[in-house]
Amino acid sequence: MTIPPNAIPQKPVLIIHFHEIALKRGNQAYFENILKRNIAQRLRDIPGARVRHMRNRLVVRGLRREDAATVMARLQKVFGIVNISVGAEVDAEMEAMKAAAQALVQSLIFESFAVRPKRAEKRYPFTSQDIGREVGSAVWEVSHARVDLTNPELEVFVEVVQGRAYLFAGKVPGPGGLPVSSSGRGVALFSVGFDAPVAAWRMMKRGLSLHLVHFHGQPQTDDASVRKARALAKVLAEWHGRIKLTLIAFSQAQEIISVACPERYRTILYRRMMMRVANKLAWKHRARALVTGESLGQVASQTLPNMAAIEDAAAFPVLRPLIAFDKQEIIAEAQHIGTHDISILPHDEACILFQPRRVETAAKIEDVRAAEEALDIPWMLDQLMKDAETEVIYPDWWVDDVDNR
After folding, report:
1. Alpha-carbon distances, residue 235 vs 200, 219, 243, 395 (angstroms)
2. Which residues, given as ranges, of the chain have pLDDT below 70?
3. What is the fold, at CATH topology level, of the domain defined by 185-393?
4. 194 to each of 121, 271, 339, how far by Cα in Å?
5. What does the pLDDT read at residue 317?
6. pLDDT of residue 124
7. 219 phi and psi, to 5 degrees?
8. 3-state per-residue secondary structure call for the chain
């Protein structure tokens, strides 16, 4: 159920629920603290906003009513949050809860309702049934709507926690998952079609903080793919927080490979070189995994033998969150996260340059290694890294030099 716009109190609080984090037992505090930090970062420019722990939930206090919609929209892109509610906070006393419930619903129009009470502790002089009965009677007094516990038009939630009661109508879903940076760091090989941005988003949702690396064909191509990479990184930054993007001019390496190595291995050798560049960035930025947008069987380089031959050049685990996705599933997710309309724009891929007429689909690792013997790989890597350009992409909500709340 969505939150009715006129169900926002004059002095609203946000009640933030999580699920997977609450299953971490001895490590729950670690994940909660990272989630709290990620939320606080998004609220730095909101006057008075404060984030506090409150027993298996987080509460945002100090909001102005006019800021509630902005804050809700931002928090819907915070990984780790299952749902968010905006409501009122009062003392955990029956009369205060009844009055707050009446204030919450008095401007709403509804024909049926249900009260959903929950107590975090059992030490109060009333039960959940008492709350449901008393608060329900108070709501009926101002609405005369019927009670429907099965399929109500309006749900009034009452949560009693640590001496305080939180009342709200409706919940807005969050993205779930784990807070960004709670699972460590990774380097994502970031092409600008549909796949790589969706793969990056999925790994962010699993708590990975990412460094993006994009390989472009300049000066052999125009700057379309670089512009797309920046635009896609900007979309992901709204979910991730500020994010680093490294741009690698790859055409010289491709030209060398195309001249020195067998044609049928070209695409595999291009991708092995990309893996080596990603290795360098991972060591430099203390990452412990590489991320790709590969999907099994989608193109010739993504057969099992070829993926094994490419991964042979990786110094870290290669994570492939889209390995079992088909193209339509990937496109649907791109639409959901906001990258689709950028990814669909035309551009020249780096790997299209010097593209072979025939691609090996069942490469053997030993044959691929033998094909690479003609290359001065350390020199090529030095050249690629020497010309690398790294920039920081900021989300619209980013504010520097303000103390965390």
Report:
1. 11, 26, 10, 8
2. 1-7, 348-354, 401-405
3. Rossmann fold (3.40.50)
4. 47, 18, 8
5. 98
6. 87
7. -85, 5
8. CCCCHHHCCCCCEEEEECCHHHHCHHHHHHHHHHHHHHHHHHCCCCCCCEEEECCCEEEEECCCHHHHHHHHHHHCCCCCCCEEEEEEEEECCHHHHHHHHHHHHCCCCCCEEEEEEEECCCCCCCCHHHHHHHHHHHHHHHHCCEECCCCCCEEEEEEEECCEEEEEECCEECCCCECCCCCCEEEEECCCCCHHHHHHHHHHHECCEEEEEEEECCCCCCCHHHHHHHHHHHHHHHHHCCEEEEEEECHHHHHHHHHHCCHHHHHHHHHHHHHHHHHHHHHHCCCCCEECCCCCCCCHHHCHHHHHHHHCCCCCCEECCCCCCCHHHHHHHHHHHCCHHHHCCCCCCHHHCCCCCCCCCCCCHHHHHHHHHHCCHHHHHHHHHHCCEEEEECCCCCCCCCCCC
Over residues 86-125, the pLDDT tens digits come to: 999 999 999 999 999 999 998 899 999 999 999 987 788 8
Angle at the Cα of 183 from the Cα atoms of 182 and 186, rounded to 5 degrees: 120
Q: CA 73 to CA 305: how far, in whole Å?
A: 44
CATH of region 5-173? 3.30.2130.30
- Residue whose token pair is 């009470």: 117
Nearest CA-CA partner of 113 in 88, 144, 85: 144
Residue 282 identity: A
Ranges of CATH 3.30.2130.30 domains, the chain: 5-173
What phi and psi, each to the nearest 5 degrees, are found at residue 273? -65, -40
Could you identify the residue written with the tokens 């804050």? 71
Environment class of 72 (CB within 10 Å of its CB; exposed 0-12, middle 13-18, buried 19+): buried
Partners of 14 in the beta sheet? 60, 86
Residue type, 143: S
Residue of 189, 188, 191 lying closest to 350 (CA atoms): 191
The CATH 3.40.50.620 portion of the chain extends over 185-393
Output phi, psi for 302, to 5 deg: -110, 30
Tokens coding 16: 């933030």
Edge to edge, the sheet with strand 209-216 lists 318-319, 290-291, 185-189, 209-216, 243-249, 389-393
- pTM of the predicted structure, to 2 decimals: 0.91
